[in-house]
Design a protein that fits this description.
alpha+beta; four-stranded mixed sheet; 52% helix; disordered N terminus
Length: 676
């Protein structure tokens, strides 16, 4: 293995600029000492030391399969949004107004008495439409027109090879368990999930009065398994080039001749010359199924997809039957979320930006945005310095990387232009299910309205109240919604050690996504193109392989290891975020007059507080069932390993906490990851 070397300039900055001490009493440290477990040794288990107190003080309740810092802040935001919505829902409003739509959909979501009285009546028309299909010739039209059943999905997004224009994309779908491994893995746990799934499908069919429920439940599993076998794995889905296959509609017709694509697209309400097929083997298998599966079996699968999609919006019995499988069996939850939380979630999903506009008006101070912009620009400078000092990268590739870094678009807080919901029809006289069907059609029409048009650079892909952040490779942008710009991620009253360790690493994480194993395949304009020399790409791949193998060695549960290939992009981003934000913090401290620099406070140096703030972002408790589910389905490493798996590859952490070779967390310098 090639020895990993930091440049001298970067090492000097990392080791000399954070040691000065002077008080700054106007600011807090931001570190809640109650979060710590001081009985733990930080050099042996940093996660337990930094987060053990938080975990003890925030035990899992019956509602949650996982509860962490993200969830705690999300709950606070949910309560705030609920307060805003309840004020609206308590009054009558002009039909067609935003207030009427928000209030009515919330009240419909809360009215379980009405739903229990309606029973399955709201979905009967859709089931009857499936029953009315009498020949295969009708399937192309039915699949195009359907809101409720599908063997594949269609969506509009930027063309990966022409990022200024939107294109239609297909994506694998049709198997309700989501991950193909649930259908194919043969370990005892996965087999038990399949058995429970068949029992769940059978029970749901029974609740809908469908005859031969046991036989049809097995049919559902058999057909979904067929689709899953042809689907790409989560690792294969991470390969942008493998999942981009642009072709004409005529070529698509030749590729999947079992579908009349002109009829399908007419039913979808669009015209187009070309599209990108995401996963060719899956789409071809879906086509073969339409030709060789018995029509009644296809209809059984479609029945199931309609029932499954409606389960949360019908009777209490139906909802609880669904929860018993997805909540209890898959994730270990004991009770569903309270009705008000589910109602707020539906309003957020239906009128998200309208709710977000109210949220930021009340809860997002403009000064937060200004400080965030300063942090982002400092992180950009820091990443630029690290790129310039990379010993393993040529000047030619560095120039391209710096061009991409400097071209990143920054979105903070909320969009400049709010979305128009005037065409969304919410009517309290109709059933909850019928209203959500129209909302789904509204969303589909909204997505399809961008087809063949230039990409809207102002569009946001998260609502302002969301506790998350993202990097979009096709537009080379980073986005930080108002929802995440709160404690424990961001604190206007806290010092720089805290904010660089928390939100600073989040910023660096999203920036680094532009240079992870996926993002590095897109240029500064968001086009999928190679801007690397062959030698530099080989060096990059060798370094990311070290990261992949390091996480493959982590045992997340007895006999179960993390998937280093699946989580590679997020692990690279965590690593880069830590490196970039720590350097930015150090440079920021170095630029201050000596009397303004921070000192040891609350018993910890600035460097130590940086890493404590980072770890507290990932504090959380999780059930064993959820660990197994997320290991299959989540590209992010589990919270414990975003700390104990990431920090042993950060040299500055060793220095801050005096970690020696005797520590169980110690990794020899030549074996540590070093990328950006």
């Amino acid at each position: 293995m090639k020895k990993i070397i930091f440049t001298i300039a970067a090492m000097a900055l990392l080791t000399t600029s954070c040691g000065t001490k002077n008080p700054n009493a106007a600011q807090t440290t931001g570190i809640d000492l109650a979060n710590l477990d001081t009985t733990a040794i930080p050099q042996n288990d940093f996660y337990q030391f930094a987060c053990g107190g938080w975990m003890a003080n925030n035990p899992l309740t019956a509602e949650y399969s996982r509860f962490g810092s993200f969830d705690k802040l999300g709950l606070q935001n949910l309560e705030q949004v609920n307060g805003l919505i309840q004020e609206i829902a308590a009054e009558k409003h002009e039909q067609g107004s935003i207030a009427q739509k928000i209030g009515d959909i919330y009240n419909l979501a809360m009215d379980t008495v009405r739903r229990d009285k309606e029973g399955i009546a709201p979905v009967q028309q859709t089931l009857a439409e499936i029953e009315a299909i009498t020949s295969r010739d009708e399937l192309s039209q039915a699949l195009g027109a359907a809101m409720d059943f599908q063997l594949w999905a269609m969506y509009v997004d930027a063309d990966a090879m022409n990022s200024k224009m939107n294109i239609l994309n297909s994506y694998q779908a049709g198997f309700s368990l989501g991950e193909k491994e649930y259908y194919l893995d043969d370990d005892e746990h996965t087999r038990s999930i399949r058995e429970a799934y068949v029992a769940y499908v059978e029970k749901m069919f029974g609740l809908f009065g469908i005859e031969n429920a046991a036989k049809k439940a097995k049919t559902v599993l058999r057909m979904e398994t067929r689709l899953a076998k042809a689907a790409y794995s989560n690792v294969e889905l991470r390969d942008p080039q493998r999942n981009y296959n642009k072709m004409s509609v005529d070529e698509l017709q030749e590729l999947v001749p079992q579908v009349n694509w002109k009829v399908y697209f007419d039913a979808l309400g669009i015209t187009l010359d070309s599209l990108s097929v995401g996963q060719i083997p899956h789409l071809q298998e879906a086509g073969r199924m339409l030709a060789d599966e018995p029509l009644e079996d296809l209809k059984t699968l479609f029945y199931w997809q309609v029932i499954e999609g409606a389960a949360s919006y019908l009777t209490t019995d139906i909802y609880m039957t669904s929860f018993d499988f997805y909540g209890k069996v898959l994730s270990g939850r004991e009770e569903p979320s309270p009705l008000w939380k589910r109602a707020v979630g539906v309003v957020n999903g239906t009128l998200g930006e309208a709710v977000g506009q109210m949220y930021v008006a009340k809860y997002f101070p403009e000064e937060n945005k200004a400080r965030m912009l300063d942090l982002v620009h400092n992180l950009q400078k820091s990443l630029g310095i690290r790129i310039e000092n990379l010993a393993w990268m040529s000047d030619e590739t560095k120039a391209k990387a710096l061009e991409k870094l400097n071209a990143i678009t920054i979105k903070i807080g909320y969009p400049d232009e709010w979305r128009d919901y005037s065409k969304l029809d919410i009517n309290a006289e109709d059933s909850y299910y019928a209203n959500l069907q129209r909302a789904a059609k509204f969303e589909q029409d909204y997505s399809l309205s961008f087809l063949g048009k230039p990409v809207d650079k102002k569009k946001w892909y998260m609502t302002p109240q969301t506790v998350n952040a993202y990097y979009n490779p096709s537009s080379n942008e980073i986005c930080f919604p108002a929802g995440i710009l709160q404690y424990p991620f961001f604190d206007m009253s806290a010092d720089d050690a805290f904010n660089y360790g928390a939100i600073g690493v989040v910023i660096g994480h999203e920036m680094t996504h532009g240079f992870d194993d996926q993002g590095c395949q897109f240029d500064k304009d968001g086009n999928m193109s190679n801007w690397w020399t062959a030698e530099d790409k080989a060096a990059f791949d060798a370094r990311t392989k070290v990261m992949e193998e390091a996480f493959n060695r982590i045992e997340v549960a007895p006999g179960v290891h993390a998937n280093g290939a699946f989580t590679l992009g997020e692990n690279i981003a965590d690593h880069g975020g830590l490196q970039v934000s720590y350097l930015a913090f150090c440079l920021n401290e170095e630029s201050k007059p000596e009397y303004e620099r921070l000192q040891e406070r609350d018993g910890f140096t600035p460097a130590q507080r940086f890493f404590l703030a980072y770890a507290n972002v990932w504090a959380g408790n999780i059930r064993p069932e959820e660990i197994l589910q997320r290991t299959k389905s989540d590209p992010h490493s589990l919270g414990r390993w975003r700390v104990n798996g990431a920090l042993p590859h950060i040299n500055a952490w060793y220095e801050a906490w005096n970690v020696t070779p005797e520590s169980p967390m110690f990794i020899a310098p030549e074996e540590r990851v070093s990328i950006w």
